[in-house]
Amino acid sequence: MTAEPAGPSPAPAPVRGTVLATVLAAAFPALDAVPVLDRPDLVAEPVLQALRRGDLGDPAHLAVLVAAIDPALADTAAFCAAYDVPAERSANCVVVSGRREGEVRWAAAVVLATTRADVNGAVRRRMDVRKVSFGGHDETVAATAMEYGGITPVGLPAGWPVLVDSAVAAAGPVVIGSGVRGSKLVLDGASLGALPTAEVLDGLGRPVPAAP
Amino acid sequence: MSPPLLLRAADPADAGEILTVQRAAFVTEAQAHDTPHLPPLVETLTEVRAALTDGGTRVLVAELAGPRGGRLVGAARCTVRDGRGWIGRVAVAPDVAGTGIGSALLQRLHDDLGPSVTGFSLWTGGRSTGNHAWYAGHGYLVTGRTADHLGVPVVTMARPVLRGAPDPLASVVVVLSAAPDGPRPDPGEVAAGPLPGELARGALRHGESLRTAALRLAGPGAAFVRPLAYYRTGGDDTPVLATVLVRP
């Protein structure tokens, strides 16, 4: 980091990701979204650590917002309807695990809420395991230090592949979990591709099968 | 004669029994959707307790008297946000499902919170066609199809609270006595009325739910009447509501 040259007037206070943050907030008028590092109390500890160490870019210019929500309305369908968030602007993160040679392998898949992660296809092949299952409640919570309904790709344990559907990366402003049920993160879907172990894949999310 | 049903507000001491009934009740939903990870099934005791102490959420429980005291057989919640009531976790113990306990819980939530909200919303499984019909019988219409966090198909439904118009409301309730598999009128016939087999027709009163009005109009002896269908017809200004009822 380079030092600012000394000038006649005091350097302006850093403003985090001003323009993008404004765009992000405007995309979700029903959410009261503020810069996440202004409200570190609203996110899970591993999420905060990841943001502070720069997993999603320079913390001084971070264009990631957080919005407190009613945890009673955190289930995806209720959340989207109650806070006017279209499903195509809401991304879900599912944690999966599988075994290979006695070792448990974990991964996360991030897809739009209009789709379901192709767990037994694309995810299983990438993990190179024979069988993939959704992480159970207790083991997922223990492994991630996040609340089950609030799992987010930001701040997952080091080394877990984070598979991001290219539709999420192309979606623009999206809402994702914050590690707790009581808030959501708002960010540019493309920024998830910057996570240390992220891989952006086409066709990761499959259309939700129509109800009979 | 069935034992008396008690509805009351839940207190934190009920959390364990609520969780137990909820898990039992939602297993059939899990089977219908091929996943054991539905939100009501992954909810923890801590989260149920949190709902019970959350000032914005009303949690009701249903108790049946039994030989060894009361038994908690049902629960339902409603979270109010921005003037809308979000119904959720409507659960009835499997052995007494289908006996009207869920209806009683839902009705009480409608009656208690109806005056303070503009309407009610909920979500239920996309493949839970029985639930769709059941909620339709309580005045809910499908408003959208989406998915939950695992990509399980979900249907959202909403029910307006009919009020604000002069009392009595311009809406009309039609109550029909029909066999369970009897012919159903179509909405156009309902609006034109009277219908063959029509039992009663009257005004929906201020703050009253369709079901409450239907039972009131049907009069004594209709206590066990079960709504089978719900129609809404006519213009937005003068909706005509109809419920088809069956006498047991």
Structural overview:
Chain B: InterPro entries: Acyl_CoA_acyltransferase, GNAT_dom. The complex is a heterodimer of chains A (212) and B (248). With 212 residues, chain A is α+β, with helices and mostly antiparallel strands. In chain A, 22% of the residues lie in helices and 26% in strands. Chain A has a 5-stranded mixed sheet. In chain A, strands 1-2-9-8 form a 4-stranded antiparallel sheet. In chain A, strands 5-11 form a two-stranded antiparallel sheet. In chain A, 50% of the residues are buried. Chain B has 248 residues and is an alpha+beta fold. In chain B, strands 1-2-3-4-5-7-6 form a 7-stranded mixed sheet, sandwiched between helices. Chain B has a 4-stranded mixed sheet with strand order 9-8-11-10. Helix content of chain B is 28%, strand content 33%. Classes of the chains: A alpha+beta (212), B alpha+beta (248). The A-B interface holds A 70-73, 75-78, 80-82, 87, 92, 94, 111, 113-117, 134, 137, 148-149, 181, 205-206, 208-212 and B 35, 37, 39, 42, 44, 47, 50-51, 54, 56-57, 77, 79, 81-82, 84, 86, 88, 121, 123, 126-127, 129, 143-156.
Main attributes?
heterodimer, A: 212 residues, YbaK protein, four-stranded antiparallel beta sheet, 11 strands, globular, B: 248 residues, alpha+beta, Aminopeptidase, 2 domains, four-stranded mixed beta sheet, 7 helices
